[in-house]
Amino acid sequence: MAMARLFHHKPQFAILDECTHSVSVDMEGYIGNHYAGVKYLDNVQLEHILEREGGWDSVQDWMDVLSVGEKQRMAMARLFHHKPQFAILDECTHLVSVDMEGYICNHYAGVGITLFTLSHRKCLWKHHEYYLHLDGRRNYEFKQITEDTVEFGS
Asked: Of 82, 104, 136, which one is at a domain's C-terminal end?
């Protein structure tokens, strides 16, 4: 009995439920969620996992099946589904290509999600209006990003 408490169990879901990060849908909601799920996976270039892993209803241990970059993009797909007003992204795209990162940032802006991005990649600056630099000594700098800033930050 004591041993059972040591193990954490994450329930396994179908890829549609992983994408929309919701409870399993009934048949009435399946079609709408299916269409939305395709769109969200397409937004982050993950539509190939549907064929690779057996379609929408495939239930897998996604922590083992998806690469780290695919897991990051799945998290991005969930944000497209939930459409929060604000999203804080902490190094969430460091294992995806710079092109994909830019595409995702532009797409978030297009659906009205304001991003707060923590990243060491200065190439992201062109997708933001302001930057906050913390120097580790209780000093900070908060400035608008200009063309000169983006060029310097690249």
From this structure: 82
pTM for this predicted structure: 0.71
138 and 112 Cβ atoms separated by less than 8 Å: no
Last residue in a domain, options 65, 82, 99:
82
Torsion of CA 53, 58, 60, 66, to 10 degrees: 40
Same domain, 105 and 42: no
pLDDT per position in the chain (154 positions), as tens? 444 444 444 556 777 677 766 544 554 455 556 667 788 888 888 889 888 988 888 888 888 888 888 888 888 888 888 888 998 888 887 788 888 888 888 888 888 899 888 887 888 888 888 988 889 999 999 999 888 776 655 4
- Do 70 and 93 share a domain, yes or no? no
Cα-to-chain-centroid distance, residue 89: 8
User: Is the four-CA dihedral 31, 36, 39, 44 of positive or negative sign?
Assistant: negative
Q: Whose CA is closest to 123, among 87, 98, 148?
A: 98
Number of separate domains in the chain: 2
Q: Which of 84, 79, 71, 66 shows the shortest CA–CA distance to 40?
A: 79
